[in-house]
Structure formats: structure tokens, C-alpha cells
Design a protein that fits this description.
With 306 residues, the protein is α+β, with helices and mostly antiparallel strands. It folds into two domains: 139 residues, Orthogonal Bundle (Arc Repressor Mutant, subunit A), CATH 1.10.10; 118 residues, Winged helix-like DNA-binding domain superfamily/Winged helix DNA-binding domain (Arc Repressor Mutant, subunit A). Helix content is 42%, strand content 22%. It is built from nine helices and eleven strands. The longest helix has 43 residues. The two termini are 34 Å apart.
Length: 306
């Protein structure tokens, strides 16, 4: 892969456009490909090869942090991904544009092409764009978290930690569209809160570079909006805590010898490695369970035939 830091950078306009419904894995693969785009390209300098990206199956699994991708499901996800479109409507005017131009899988290498008609959304961006590291979304178990995270990153400039430039309020109907929610029962606020908002809040606050809090707003007796009451970078919290409890030099331990300090560091590293190993093991179990459940869902909806 060309870009080591895997920075996803896209215009705000591309986030606002309506996309056809995608699965969590399709959204991740799409954003992984976007992270491979050279953002410094100029449109008049683009060559055909600049729109084609390659990644091995092994690297793809590694980037998606999944242990396995059954061949039938892998092909199905890529097949569905290549026909996904962004949609634009304004009165009687409309436009549908495919995101990808083609996909080819040969010798364990996936080659995929970005549609030239939408490349402007990802290159030579100077203003009105959103960017984040791919690592912030790869752990999401729900596509709702990914889509809501993008909205928050896009709109974060409207708020600061201690001073609101303006209220950040989302209409529920807007969120239903942006989060690709179609189920009528899920559009009932209590269900939406429990099954979407709380899960999204937990995943974003625990796994990404930002945290947020929200509260419902009513028109009459009905909740029809939510207000983001806090939205901040996690580093802001660390700075805030440091300001509350400034570190004093005289409080630092001074009685440790060099040998004792090295031993303490070694023991700490061993504990960290043990925790990481345990976490990795649990993550693989969860991934396997999630993959099985998602496959059952795809079979039940007819997207995968057995």
C-alpha cells in the first residue's frame, strides 16, 4: 500500500451526498481504498494508473483486522461494492455516480478502480474537507458508528470544548438517512437510542480520537432531534486533567536505582504484552462470532445463497 499512515481524506460534500446502503465491511474497504489515494494529485495531472489501487488478500485482512474472509463472502462484498453509487437530487434534477469503476481479483491480489468522475472529492483539498486515520474506524462492529463518526468529524469545527460556536443539532430524519436506517421500528426514538445512539456513543468514545455526549430535543411531546452537547478530542481531556493536577517535580520518586528502574520497566512491558495477547485472543473470538452472525444475516436476506 502506498500510504503508510492510511489517512482518509475526503470533501465534506462527499459525506453529505446520499450513498446506497452498504455493509460495515464494504464501508471499511471503501475507506481503506480512499486512504490509498494521493491527496496531492491535481486533476489535470491524473493518469489512469493513479485511479487503480492494489492490495493483497493478506494485507486486506490485516488492515481490516479480521482473521478470515470466506471466499464466497469476500467476492459478494466486492461485487456489491463495485455497483454502489452516490446519489444527488435537487427538485426534479438527479445524478447517480458509481464510486468504483471496476474490481479484479487474481493471484490473491485485489485491483480496484476509483471512478474518475468522483476523484475530485479526494484530491487537492484545501478547505471544506474531513480527514481521519483509518485505524479509528477499523474496530467498529457497526456501520452506524462509522457513519456517525464521519458526521462528527465533519461538524466538529462548529464546536469547541469550552465554547460553543453554535449548537450542533441533528434532525432524526437526517440521521436516519445518513446512517442508512430503513426499518420503521428502528425509527422509533427509544429503539433508535438503545440500538443505535448508545452503541455508537460507546464505540466512538472507546475506540477513536474523539468523544461526544448528546441529549434529545422535543417538538411538543415527540423527540425529533438530538443535540451534541459535548464533542472533543481525547487529548483535550488529558490537557484539561493536567491543568487541574499539575505535576510537581518534588513528587517524582527519586529513590529508585538504575537497576530497579530497568526491572520495573521490564515488568511493565511484560504485563502489557500479556494484556495485548489476551486482548488479541478475545478479539479473534469476537470477530469469528461476528462473522458467523453477519453471514447468517446475509443468508436470511438472500444476499448470500447456500
Amino acid at each position: 500500500m502506498e500510504k503508510v499512515n492510511k489517512l482518509v481524506k475526503k470533501s465534506n460534500e462527499s459525506i453529505e451526498y446520499k450513498m446506497e446502503i452498504m455493509t460495515n465491511q464494504q464501508l471499511k474497504i471503501m475507506n481503506l481504498i480512499i486512504s490509498m489515494i494521493d491527496n496531492n494529485l491535481k486533476k489535470d495531472e491524473i493518469k489512469k494508473d493513479d485511479l487503480i489501487f492494489q492490495i493483497s488478500r493478506k494485507e486486506l485482512l490485516k488492515e481490516l483486522e479480521i482473521s478470515n474472509f470466506k471466499t464466497i463472502r469476500f467476492e459478494k462484498e466486492i461485487d456489491k461494492l463495485t455497483i454502489k453509487r452516490i446519489q444527488y437530487k435537487n427538485g426534479n434534477d438527479f445524478e447517480y455516480i458509481n464510486i468504483f469503476s471496476f474490481a479484479k481479483y487474481k493471484n490473491n491480489i485485489l485491483s480496484i478502480g476509483i471512478n474518475e468522475m468522483i476523484i475530485d472529492y479526494f484530491i487537492d483539498l484545501k478547505k471544506n474537507f474531513t480527514q481521519y486515520y483509518f485505524k479509528n474506524i477499523v474496530g467498529f462492529k457497526s456501520k452506524y458508528s462509522l457513519l456517525f463518526y464521519e458526521l462528527l468529524k465533519k461538524d466538529k469545527h462548529t464546536m469547541t470544548q469550552h465554547n460553543h460556536k453554535k449548537d450542533l443539532i441533528y434532525d432524526l430524519e437526517y440521521l436516519f438517512e445518513k446512517l442508512q436506517i430503513e426499518s420503521k421500528s428502528m425509527k422509533i426514538y427509544q429503539n433508535f437510542k438503545v440500538k443505535v445512539l448508545e452503541m455508537v456513543k460507546r464505540e466512538i468514545n472507546n475506540q477513536t480520537d474523539i468523544c461526544f455526549e448528546y441529549k434529545p430535543l422535543k417538538s411538543g411531546h415527540k423527540v425529533d432531534r438530538i443535540q451534541i452537547t459535548r464533542l472533543y478530542n481525547k487529548k483535550d481531556i488529558r490537557v484539561e486533567e493536567e491543568e487541574k493536577t499539575p505535576l510537581k517535580i518534588e513528587e517524582l520518586p527519586t529513590e529508585l536505582t538504575k537497576e530497579e528502574l530497568l526491572k520495573l520497566i521490564k515488568e511493565s512491558n511484560e504485563r502489557i504484552q500479556s494484556l495485548e495477547s489476551s486482548l488479541h485472543s478475545e478479539r479473534r473470538k469476537f470477530d469469528k462470532l461476528y462473522d458467523n452472525e453477519e453471514e447468517k444475516y446475509l443468508i436470511s436476506t438472500g444476499e448470500i445463497k447456500v
